[in-house]
Amino acid sequence: MSDNQEPHYTENVQEHLLQVQHLLEKHALVEAVAHQQEIPRAERHELIDQLLHKRHLAELREMLSSLHPADIAYILEALPIEQRLLVWDQVKADRDGEILIEVSDAVRESLIATMSRDELREAAEQLDTDEIADLAPDLPQAVMRDVFKSLPIEEREQLRAAISYPEDTVGALMDFDMVTIREDVTLEVVSRYLRRFDDLPDHTDQLFVVDRDDIFKGVLPLNLLLVNEPEAGVETLMVSETIVLHPDDKAEQAAQAFERYDLVSAPVVDEDGKLIGRVTVNTVVDYIRSESESDVLNLAGLREEEDIFASVWKSAKNRWMWLALNLCTAFFASRVIGSFESTIEKFVALATLMPIVAGIAGNSANQTTTIIIRSLALGQITSTNTRRLIGKELAIGGLNGLVWGGVAGLFAYFLYKSVLIGLILTGAMLLNLLLGALAAMLIPFAMQRLGRDPAIGSSVMLTAITDSGGFFIFLGLATLFLSR
What is the pLDDT of residues 80-91, one digit of tens each? Predict the structure, then answer.
């Protein structure tokens, strides 16, 4: 493919991954064969160069040059580190920056570790200011100093501003590439102005109207520009009442606004009303995806995103914190059981029924906490409806406890021919489901009150509570009623 050709983008990324893996397998096979030949070392190196670099790697380079950066990022994430770095070496240097933006944080770290200071600087210089800000936390300080020096003064100030915003705010999602117009011009003037651009910024569905001091006045949707007479004035057609974001707003609030109002772009204004940037739907979608992935990891008790091909040591450390907590809670649960050893010795049936009490309550609690975490993320839970929600979830837990506890109690009765054991199992399941529902509500609320992500470790903590609580309730009831 010639340098002036545009990459051919396709959605069939899985097929491309298989092709890359096939080329890498052939590369490894030919290299192994070449190293087994009993020929002088110099000639062997020449043979390797002819068989590999002029064939399979050249084919790999050509294939990568035709792929979208997001597809290459997907391929890199799906390869073991040795193969990943080999593929990374075949990527054209002028595409490094846009690919680094697309890959996950964990994989980006492994790629950056192999790059020199000059390579990192050149990669960053390929990006827009807002993209450099996204990449900044992963770049060495020396590289960021070089990048700052290479930027024009205006972009330097934009970058400094973008880096200053926390990652969960609108300012961190903000894009500085936008089209602004004045309100005192006609549509014909606007059309002539737009024709001066080679390309409009991505996701340009509206033009932002500002005065001479960059104070935001409204927006001019492109459809109004196209269907109205050229002599019409911007001031008469612009929309003044529109969704406006502020750089300190929470990113999740912006995401909700984009979803609720089907936005493609939205202006970002500072406290003085000056237009400083915009947020686009592609950035919001990336943010939502990132938050969803983070919630899944947090529910499982993982501290950070994990490269699936990272070393055993690094992956193990990422999983230690909540495993350590889980071990402590498991010991606590075992001591709860140990304190009722005499009861279990008398009624061995209790040992076989204990997992039922803990398991059903754990599943029910995880269902509740998933709904609560989602509602908190959407901003649907407020101080005025919290009590009502707690009452509702307790009612659901009580109903489920009666229904499924009753089913389990009948099952226990038919197994052990004991009405009392059946009633104890039913009562224990009812009480533990109520405990699980209460914990499933209070844990996310407490996390949010402490300024933490409500999803962090919720699943691990709920399992500990429903296990220990279930064992204590079931064995306590059994001791109380069976030991008489």
Answer: 999 999 999 999
Rounded Cα–Cα distance for residues 263 and 260 (Å):
8
Cα separation, 187 vs 193, in Å, equals 10
Q: Which DSSP state fits 228? A: S
User: 216-221 and 265-269 as β-strands: parallel, antiparallel, unpaired?
Assistant: unpaired
Instruction: Report residue 110: phi and psi, to 5°.
Output: -70, -30
Domain 180-291, CATH number (from 3.30.1200.10, 3.20.20.70, 2.40.50.140, 3.10.580.10): 3.10.580.10
Of the candidates 414, 411, 425, the one whose C-alpha atom is nearest the C-alpha of residue 470 is: 425
The CATH number that domain 13-168 falls under is 1.25.60.10
| 11 SS3 class | coil
Coil, helix or strand at residue 324 = helix
Q: Model pTM?
A: 0.71
List where CATH 1.10.357.20 sits in the chain: 319-482
Asked if 102 contacts 69 with a C-beta cutoff of 8 angstroms, the reply is yes
In 269-281, which positions are buried (b, 16+ CB within 10 angstroms) versus exposed (e)?
bbeeeebbbbbbb
Query: Where exactly does CATH 1.25.60.10 map onto the chain?
Result: 13-168
Architecture of domain 319-482 in CATH?
Answer: Orthogonal Bundle (1.10)
Look at the alpha carbons of 46, 52, 54, 57 in this order and tell me if their dihedral is positive or negative. negative
Phi, psi angle pair for 233, to nearest 5°: -90, 150
| Interatomic CA distance for residues 182 and 169, integer angstroms | 29
What are the angstrom distances between the C-alpha of 299 and each of 7, 116, 296, 361, 371? Answer: 39, 37, 5, 17, 13
Give just the sign of the alpha carbon dihedral 327, 329, 332, 336: negative
Provide the 10 A C-beta neighbour count for residue 146.
18
376 neighbors 455 (Cβ within 8 angstroms):
no
Q: For the segment 280-320, what is each residue's pLDDT rounded down to a tens digit? A: 999 999 888 888 777 766 666 665 566 777 777 777 777 77
Q: State the DSSP string of 143-188.
A: HHHHHHHHS-HHHHHHHHHHHHS-TTBHHHH-B----EE-TTSBHH
